[in-house]
Each structure stands twice: as C-alpha cells, then as structure tokens.
Design brief:
The structure holds 2 protein chains of 2 kinds.
Chain A lengths: L4 E3 L2 E5 L4 E6 L6 E7 L6 E6 L5 E4 L2 E5 L5 E6 L8 E8 L7 E3 L3 E6 L1
Chain B lengths: L4 E3 L2 E4 L5 E6 L6 E7 L6 E7 L2 E4 L8 E4 L6 E5 L8 E8 L8 E2 L3 E5 L1
Parallel strand pairs in B: 2-11
Antiparallel strand pairs in B: 1-3, 3-8, 4-5, 4-9, 5-6, 7-8, 9-10, 9-11
Classes of the chains: A mainly beta, B mainly beta.
C-alpha cells in the first residue's frame, strides 16, 4: 500500500502570511494531485503535477513535484480567509487502474 | 455540465441496520469511485468501476459492504449490517476514463451510526 504523509496536520495563520504544506511518500507516483475540500463538500482538484521537478502556479498557490516524484509541496503566498479548507494530496499509481491514494490532509485556517 | 449527484446528504441509522447510498456520475464518465472519509482523515478508496465492471475493490469490507453499477451509469453502495465504525462521509467521484487525471467528486453522504 502506497502511503502519503502530509504535514502539518493543522495550520492556523493570520491573513497575509505565507505558508507551505508538504506531502511525502517512500513510493514513486506517476502523477500527484492537490485537492481542496471545504466543509460539507467533496474535494475539488487544484492541480496535477506529472514531471519530476515540475512547478505549477495557480494565482497565489505554487505547487512543486519532487525530482524523484515521491514528494510535493504547496506554498500559499499572502493567505486569505477564503483559502481556509482541507488540503489533500493524492498520488496516482499509474497503470491501467489509475488508482488514486489520498493523504490525511492539512486543515488550514486563515484568520482575518 | 451537471456535477456528480449523491443522495441522501445525511443518514442516521442504528447499528446492525442496513443503508444504501446512490450516486449519479457526470454524463459520459466511464470511471466511478466510492470513497470513505472518516473525520480527520483523507478519503479511502472502497471500490472503482470502469463502466459496469469492478476494477479495484481490494479495500472494500466485502462481508458487509457491496456496490453495483449495473448499467454503467448510476451506482449504489450498500452497508449491511452497519457498525459504529462505519460512521463517515461516503464520497462518489467520476472521471471520463481511466487515463484521465481529473476526478470530480460529489458532496458526499454523511452517515452516522448510533
């Protein structure tokens, strides 16, 4: 079973601060995805990273895939209250099944 | 484009009772997943369908859980009999095909077993 460890588990910051959350595994993934989940809703895809070392930006969010495709990070610049939510990373094992394995998530609270 | 529809949104049952959840994926999406998300954890895959065939059910507790997708569209997930530890949000997700990367999730069904 491929495991994804996310850290920190909880993060509470003030509006305007920067933060980074991490997703680590001992396994190699063909691709890795980041989702955000708000209370009472299903996860919503933010980004998919495929190539080792890849960096993708989505407005104030920067996603990086590790060179060895075992880890990833999400950096948020100047966090806003609207960024509050559960951030989940999910690794894709590839193959014909394309199985998606989720980490436990980082619960982010941005206080105004 | 309509999203993934799930019902009911909430369900409270007593232990040892039965319960069923329904999912209508996005039109044209061949791949359908059922996930279990326990409070404070990430979603755990229970079963994956490709059209009406099961691709992966290795983490489905088959002694009490069952799922079907008879016509390759809608799907139902059943628990019989329910245990206290089954209390969780049950998420359905779909995507166009096995090689597509983006899965779209429904709002989930929150099950409480008392």
């Amino acid at each position: 079973t491929q495991l994804l460890e996310q850290s920190p588990q909880f993060l509470s910051i003030q509006e305007g601060e920067n933060l980074t959350v991490y997703c680590n595994s001992s396994s190699v993934f063909s691709s890795l995805q980041w989702y955000r989940q708000e209370p009472g809703e299903g996860p919503v895809l933010l980004v998919t990273v495929v190539t080792g070392g890849e960096v993708k930006k989505l407005k104030r969010l920067t996603f990086q895939f590790g060179d060895a495709r075992k880890d990833s990070s999400l950096h948020i610049t100047a966090a806003q209250p609207g960024d509050t939510g559960l951030y989940l990373c999910a690794g894709n094992s590839g193959g014909s099944n394309y199985k998606l394995t989720f980490g436990k998530g980082t619960l982010l609270t941005v206080n105004p | 484009e309509a999203g993934v529809a799930q019902s009911p949104r909430y369900k409270i049952i007593e232990k040892r009772q039965s319960v069923a959840f329904w999912c209508n994926p996005i039109s044209g999406h061949a791949t359908l997943y059922w996930y279990q998300q326990i409070l404070g954890q990430g979603p755990k895959l229970l079963i994956q369908f490709q059209n009406n065939g099961v691709v992966d059910d290795s983490q489905l507790p088959k002694d009490r859980f069952s799922a079907e997708r008879l016509k390759g569209v809608d799907s139902t997930l059943k628990i019989q009999p329910a245990k206290l530890e089954d209390s969780a949000v049950y998420l359905c997700a779909s995507k166009r095909g096995p090689m597509n990367t983006e899965a779209f999730f429904g709002q989930g069904t929150r099950l409480t077993v008392v």
